[in-house]
Amino acid sequence: MKAARIIEPDKPLELHQVEISDPTGTEVLLKVVSTGVCHSDLHLWEGGYDTGDGFMKVTDRGVKFPVTPGHEVVGIVEKIGDSVNDVKIGDTVLVYPWIGCAKCPTCEKGDTNLCETPKSLGVFQDGGYAEKVIVPDYKFLANIGSVDPDSASSLACSGLTAYTAIKKALVNNPESILIVGAGGLGLMGVQIAHHMAKCKIICADIDDEKLKTAKELGATDVINTKESDASQKIMSICNEKGVDSIVDFVNAPPTVKLDLSVVRKRGNIILVGLFGGSVDLPLVSVPLKAITIQGAYTGNYKDMVELIELAKQGVINPIVSKHYTLDEATGALDDLKNRKILGRAVINP
Which cofactor does the UniProt annotation name (predicted)? Predict the structure, then answer.
């Protein structure tokens, strides 16, 4: 089968013929229909993350090159191992890629996405930038029903991450939510917040076209953060009290600085994006304002199933604006890096 592989960081992906074995035991072999192009793929391709104090290599986290990226995978079940239940040949399924060790307390609780020794598909083992992929256990598959495969692919990561973050944002019963970033995650976050929250939904970005889309998807207010008075405008929308919950899908120094300037007393800041860098945190403001700062990293399998159900109901509709073939994988990552993609892009092998 053909697979687009990262041989080494920052080099064009190479299209290789790769042998793939028949599934055994609980394994399932999928014919890949659609694979989302995610910012996490971009960081994998670049070889790591800017931590603010240096560069954290993905190889230091256990990634081994060459690797086939792609963790947002929809495929058709082609072959199954002899211990597989609940799925059958011909089913169209979404892969839950956040596979753990299956032994630690976190995995036993079902939160395999938070396992300290992860085996995530498309990161630590070969993923969906390929014609076929092996999933190690059928329990990581979910039937998508009538949901469009291209749209469904993003539910495994960007949609799942947005869903988890918005649920965290609702814990303090907000009168207002600020969503920072109107990319694939942010636009999904707007849709989910519009469905789940009865409050003001403010979306902030530097791109007017993306902000227009956010407004169409349910944002009550939009702010272009290129404007010098962006923080004042946000405060005005919130009656000068500040924002109850902020979900930062960028998580860059300028956006976190904005978050801290507009968060309300008893407010909640959820940092999601992996842009990187560092900020000066006015420590005294944390206890004086009793604010909470927390991270959100995808969600568990149960969350993904809930999200698929919302898609089946038409509550959310992931935006897919570009399609690529396997031999265009490098171009897809370049376009994502250069902000040329509205919503989501997919690779159709």
Answer: Zn(2+)
